[in-house]
Amino acid sequence: MSYSREGRSASPRGSVSPERGRHRSRSRSRSLPRSRRSRSRSRSVDAANPGNNLYVTGLSTRVTSSDLEKYFNKEGKVVECHLVTDPRSRESRGFAFVTMETVEDADRCIKYLNRSVLEGRLITVEKV
Prior knowledge:
globular; RNA binding; single chain; alpha+beta; 5-stranded antiparallel beta sheet; about 130 residues; 3 helices
């Protein structure tokens, strides 16, 4: 049995694709609540979070994790510093998470380091 363009009808593809398109859009819309759900899970964890986790944005791509740790150590003891990087290029994606030892250290960082300049970039510091 030979398949040729004349032997095939163009309409089945056209009639099937709108249905598939509808299903795809539904599945895509379902993926958004999943990401929201994961955020809501982290928010429920925030109830147990003592408030010493900081979200830092506006970072230069040149900033390293050790640079960030040194910068935040000026205002208190840093327990952990996680600079988010692109998996392929390993370049900074411009934001990080810094965990301070105490809530007071975290509050001091927000007070003195929020809207400060690091490596020529204005950074923001806020609680997670």
